[in-house]
Fold this protein.
Amino acid sequence: MVLNSVVDNPGQAGRLEQSLIASVQAGQSELFYELVRPYERRVFAAALAILRNEHDAEDAAQEAMLKAFANIRQFRAEARFSTWLIQITVNEALMRRRRERTVPMEGLDERREEESEYAPRDFADWREIPSEALERKEVRQRLAEALGTLDRKYREVFVLRDMEHLNIQETAEALGISVASVKTRLLRARLMLRDLLAAGWEQGWFSRLPFEKGTKPW
Amino acid sequence: MVENCEQVWREVSNYVDGDVDARLRASMDEHFRTCKKCASVLAGTNNVMVLYGDERMLEVPAGFGRRLEKRLAKKSAVKGIGWSAWSAWALPVAATVLVVGALLMTSSSSGWHPLRSEHAAQAKDIPADMVVVVSSGAKLFHVPGCKFIHDKASERTLTAKQAMLEGYVPCPRCLRQYLKTGLTQESGDDDASAQAEEDSEEVLSVPGH
């Protein structure tokens, strides 16, 4: 059974996933890797957003998968399997960060900053960036670097919401913050990244893409 | 309804998420038609979401899957044998153990029980009919209202006897007086013990579970 092969058909993929879950819960543990393989990238990205170190993120992501494996019988279909898996990963990564205490506590100034508004800086004409741009490793790397420059609290919310596609409520629950905080942080993260992309255009990140002369892609 | 660009910038994220009411949406639509600046902000925000939302932005280090498979195999091996074979004989044995445990429970309130937590202290002299609460996916039972209850939405009330029969162990914070003294650390370690339990439960505190 290869879940990836039916990923273009969400209904079929969903049924296959349910069937895999039922099989693993019934004792066919050898199918567990098949079940989680489509989510490897999302699980790793969630851990990386919190831990910011590839080695730690991999370890946390894999530990989360092992915990999911050990607790698969407790999974019930009220939640999506992917959400359950990502939430376990976020818990694992947050627990490691707390244990290591390498990240300073959020200061008063930071909280005030969150309350203040962020004003966009660039208002050039817009043109859609074709998704083909992502075929280029350099573009993906630049985008990842831009994301890495965001403060932790903005990066975590953005990754869970816009890259992991959790909804606002799920993001709030995963990070243990309020829905209002998720919305505020998400707005700032999106606007900051938009400005960073605009700056990236000036630096030629998206050169060799088919834009008309004089237009900018944001 | 929208009076200036700042108002639009405040709401643009909710707008793209479809999280504004119909009146505000119509007002913002109108503003976007006439304001180039805000149209640029909206378009750029959409660009960010489309680019970062693409699966290709999620990359794993080379060999990640292979290493994960190895760890999974190792975990299965540590259990002795795979789940399939394990469950064939272990489940009937576990069922027998539960029945024996239940029989012991009826004769002694401090009898043996299959514990949900490997490192928890066992209970001593807990009144069998004491009202306690448990939540799904947790290992501890608590006095109602204890702040260490996880996933309060799935809280269930039962007697201490029933909780122990189900393998739950007492919360080292709210039920510390009932923990076996030989296994329990002094008060300063209760917090650590509760934290350890809390940490081990954390992974299971998933909505709906």
